[in-house]
Structure to design on (860 residues):
């Protein structure tokens, strides 16, 4: 195979990055169906605790009116934010199904990612410290090097059994 | 003057249970304190031993008292004793007997009674089996008695279930919430509570083991079954709840990320993390501090969940009436946390790891990441549940944190977890060589590539989906692809092991698989649980292709959705003493072939003056046809029918059954456990030495 076509680890990484980018960019593919999307980003205010377009109460005092308001807003407004702001101003911030108003609302989204990243970094550091320590230890961790059992097959067999049972 | 013999008996039983639990707590503590130097608390032995024995017996007797109290409440429900306020507010004369029984957990006081009764039941079993380790059991029994005392204080002084209704006795009750009048509600709450309450036992053992500086990891062996059984109950409880929501609430879904649903999910996530990481302690003496805090957190989350449903802290359609008992829970959580923290700092040196992680590519590190992901998911759920309260405190206004938030944040976490489910078992303890990684991963990767191509060929193409569907279809595509890899990895594990057994014994493949599983039920039961989780993920991924349509349907009108055509044959009314019902009879056609008739209902309950829907389902492995009678249009008098097609829904419930099966298998003792010398070495799937017991 010519050198130019060989898949090096670097090329695998580049390919994976392109695929990832393609998946991320998919969200910008189509501009239709704003009504359905926005209707799923709002709550019905009747107290049922359901997404606006999923409220299934016949005779619900709010959902029909809100849905027709949403249709009007989608037809009239320029952007999604304007529609959501309109509803938020009329019904209060609890009408939005997720905290998306900016400011402190951003904390709702940032915190899980931040915790995950910090925990991953913490785990990475912990693993690195452990590895450094274990590198300085005797070959069979957990058994002191001067342990009389260290070299015996029984101890090793017992350990293998214990550690590979599941 | 009226007398109320059964409520009085119930109240007395609760007081007696409180007295017995206080005795168990105090005398148990005194006995353990007195025996701290000789490290021996043996029944019938020293003075401390005898005192400890009386505490143990008092603890067991408290179960009898609690059973008496629970019986009294159920009896009051069965005999329509509306002098009891709780019975008046949660039952009515025409209520089915099964639902009268379910009234035990349909309100605040009753559900607290159920909590305390189940706790006393767990305590009874623990104390009965005290000989597995007398001293450790004494610690655990005393700690459980502490928890029991808290719930009995609540039941006796803050939320008494036998409170007498003032004034003349009513002729009929206000009825049970219609949403609870469904067969699954007779079993879902007890399952959930068995899971919730059950985590008290491993918590008590862990705290006790830490307090007494228990040598070695035997306490993990002792609590392993408790933890697994508890986890199983919680799993069943959560999914029975999801199935109930799907069948009754009538919005086409099964999980709404309601705070009460979240409250049950959080301890499940930390409990699952504990079940995995505890293996590292068992096998390699690692992660001791982590495990202790995981089980402490799990217990605290069960208490927090109980608080969330009762304090009015968060808004939820599930929540019980707001009351002041939230303050009791805050106090209890603070006390438990303080005890855990104090014990931890006092005994910290006892929790030093015996081993360190030797390689990033090892089973240990996969467990570490598994824990990381599960705890991130738990944090996300907790954060989202409490964010409205935090937002109100910071900004002065509440916000809603609903399904869009959780779906966006938790889906990537779920996918990462699915990925780890596949690769974890392929890695060896301590370290895995690059060669074995190549050998073990090639098959799952091939399966993933094939699955990707097949799924795309079947029409799952996020790049050509509508904007609304892009995220859901992308999630589905990744899920199907990863699932193929994980299932292949699990199947390969079975086949490799079975091939070795077959070589040794000459049995055929099926017999070899059975023998392999029986030889190490824990390992292969675990794989089956993983398989069940993958199947559930596949079912969840089907949600990306849901379709829905709503239409007014008179006689002979038809509604088409997907491959189905529904024709309205009639709509009518019926009545029984408990409720009036309106329903439509709909013939369901697929092409020109009639496949079934469905009768979705809309019920109006007399006693509570409320209505609810009864969903009609036609369920196949491929999809569910989900039909709701939403009521009549007041103008035309015609019924409004809403129809959903929910693809792959059944796989979620099948996945749960597989998880249950796998857990039962993992709980079953392995067939043989011979001495190490009799063991035979076989090439392990990861290229390391692996010992199977002959």
């Amino acid at each position: 195979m010519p050198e130019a076509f060989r898949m090096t680890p670097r090329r695998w990484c580049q390919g994976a990055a392109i695929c990832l980018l393609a998946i991320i960019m998919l969200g910008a593919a189509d501009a239709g169906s704003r009504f359905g999307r926005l209707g799923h980003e709002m709550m019905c205010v009747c107290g049922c605790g359901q997404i606006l377009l999923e409220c299934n109460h016949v005779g619900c005092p709010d959902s029909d009116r809100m849905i027709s308001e949403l249709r009007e807003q989608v037809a009239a407004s320029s952007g999604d934010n304007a529609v959501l702001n309109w509803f938020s101003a009329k019904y209060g911030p609890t009408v939005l199904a997720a905290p998306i108003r900016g400011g402190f609302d951003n904390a709702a989204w940032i915190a899980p990612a931040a915790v995950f990243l910090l925990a991953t970094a913490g785990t990475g550091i912990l693993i690195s410290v452990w590895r450094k320590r274990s590198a300085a230890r005797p070959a069979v961790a957990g058994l002191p090097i001067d342990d009389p059992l260290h070299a015996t097959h029984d101890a090793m067999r017992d350990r293998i059994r214990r550690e590979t049972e599941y | 003057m009226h007398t109320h013999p059964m409520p009085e008996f119930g109240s007395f039983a609760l007081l007696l249970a409180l007295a017995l639990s206080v005795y168990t707590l105090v005398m148990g503590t005194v006995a353990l304190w007195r025996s701290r130097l000789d490290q021996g608390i043996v029944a019938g032995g020293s003075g401390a031993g005898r005192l400890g024995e009386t505490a143990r017996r008092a603890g067991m007797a408290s179960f009898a008292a609690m059973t008496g109290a629970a019986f009294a409440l159920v009896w009051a429900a069965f005999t329509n004793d509306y002098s009891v306020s709780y019975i008046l507010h949660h039952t009515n004369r025409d209520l089915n007997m099964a639902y009268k029984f379910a009234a035990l957990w349909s309100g605040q006081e009753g559900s607290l009674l159920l909590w305390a009764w189940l706790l006393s039941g767990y305590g009874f079993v623990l104390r009965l089996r005290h000989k597995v380790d007398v001293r450790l059991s004494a610690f655990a029994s005393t700690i459980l008695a502490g928890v029991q005392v808290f719930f009995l204080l609540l039941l006796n002084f803050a939320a008494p279930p036998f409170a007498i209704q003032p004034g003349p006795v009513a002729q009929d009750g206000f009825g049970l919430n219609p949403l609870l009048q469904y067969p699954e509600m007779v079993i879902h709450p007890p399952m959930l509570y068995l899971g919730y309450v059950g985590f008290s036992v491993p918590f008590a053992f862990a705290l006790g083991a830490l307090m007494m500086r228990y040598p070695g990891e035997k306490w993990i062996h002792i609590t392993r079954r408790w933890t697994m059984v508890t986890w199983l109950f919680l799993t069943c409880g959560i999914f029975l709840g999801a199935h109930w929501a799907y069948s009754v609430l009538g919005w086409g879904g099964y999980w709404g990320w309601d705070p009460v649903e979240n409250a049950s999910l959080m301890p499940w996530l930390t409990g699952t993390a504990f079940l995995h990481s505890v293996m590292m302690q068992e096998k390699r003496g690692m992660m001791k501090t982590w495990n202790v805090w995981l089980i402490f957190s799990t217990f605290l989350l069960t208490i927090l969940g109980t608080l969330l449903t009762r304090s009015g802290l968060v808004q939820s359609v599930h929540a019980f009436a707001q009351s002041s008992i939230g303050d009791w829970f805050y106090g209890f959580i603070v006390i438990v946390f303080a005890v855990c923290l104090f014990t931890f700092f006092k005994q910290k040196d006892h929790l030093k790891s015996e081993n360190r992680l030797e390689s990033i590519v090892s089973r240990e590190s996969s467990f570490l990441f598994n824990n990381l992901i599960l705890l991130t998911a738990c944090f996300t759920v907790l954060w989202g549940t409490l964010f409205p309260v935090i937002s109100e405190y910071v900004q002065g206004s509440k916000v809603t944190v609903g399904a869009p938030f959780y779906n966006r944040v938790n889906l990537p976490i779920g996918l990462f977890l699915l990925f780890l489910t596949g690769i974890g078992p392929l890695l060896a303890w301590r370290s895995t060589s690059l060669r074995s990684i190549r050998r073990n991963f090639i098959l799952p990767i091939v399966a993933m590539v094939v699955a990707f191509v097949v799924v795309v060929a079947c029409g799952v193409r996020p790049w050509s989906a509508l904007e609304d569907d892009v995220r859901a279809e992308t999630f589905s595509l990744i899920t199907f692809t990863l699932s193929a890899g994980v299932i292949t990895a699990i199947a390969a594990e079975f086949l490799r092991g079975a091939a070795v057994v077959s070589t040794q014994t000459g049995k055929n493949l099926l017999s070899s698989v059975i023998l392999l599983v029986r030889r190490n039920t824990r390992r292969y039961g675990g794989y089956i649980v993983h398989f069940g989780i993958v199947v559930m993920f596949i079912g969840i991924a089907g949600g990306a292709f849901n379709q829905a349509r709503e239409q007014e349907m008179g006689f002979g009108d038809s509604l088409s959705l997907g491959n189905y055509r529904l024709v309205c044959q009639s709509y009518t009314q019926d009545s029984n003493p408990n409720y009036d019902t309106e329903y439509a009879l709909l013939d369901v056609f697929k092409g020109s072939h009639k496949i079934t008739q469905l009768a979705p209902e809309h019920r109006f309950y007399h006693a509570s003056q409320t209505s609810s829907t009864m969903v009609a389902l036609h369920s196949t492995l491929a999809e569910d046809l989900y039909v709701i009678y939403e009521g009549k249009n007041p103008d035309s008098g015609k019924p409004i029918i809403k129809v959903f097609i929910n693809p792959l829904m059944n796989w979620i419930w099948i996945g749960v059954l597989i998880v249950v099966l796998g857990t039962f298998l993992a709980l079953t003792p392995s067939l043989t456990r011979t001495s190490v010398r009799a063991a035979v070495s076989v090439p392990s799937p990861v290229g390391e030495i692996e010992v199977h017991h002959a």
The two ends of chain A are 43 Å apart (CA to CA). Chain A touches chain B through 65 residues (CB under 8 Å). Helices of chain A lie at 9-25, 34-39, 63-76, 80-91, 105-135, 153-164.
